[in-house]
Write a structure and sequence with these properties.
By secondary structure, this protein is α+β, with helices and mostly antiparallel strands. The protein is about 40% helix and about 10% strand. It has a two-stranded parallel ribbon with strand order 1-2.
């Protein structure tokens, strides 16, 4: 849990700011299930992982978006909104 904002509010703030909108964002949540995952991705997250997860799984997921970072002009969620 984050003390000031929830993940969705932080994500909205990042996506609204031109300086941060191209950052890759992975939501880490205790909310499981298809509906929660779809909600997170629809909100603009690049990935959604459900707790608990292993360090190995997190490392694998966090290295996958490295190709997206190389293409900041065309962020992966450009067509989701």
């Amino acid at each position: 849990m984050m003390p000031e904002l929830d993940g969705f509010a932080l994500l909205a703030t990042l996506r609204a700011d031109e300086a941060t909108r191209g950052l890759v964002v992975m939501l880490l949540s205790a909310r499981a299930g298809e509906e929660a995952r779809v909600e997170g991705l629809a909100a603009g997250a690049d990935d959604y992982m459900v707790k608990p997860f292993s360090a190995r799984e997190l490392r694998a997921a966090s290295t996958a978006p490295s190709a997206w970072r190389a293409s900041a002009a065309n962020p992966p969620n450009a067509n989701r909104h």
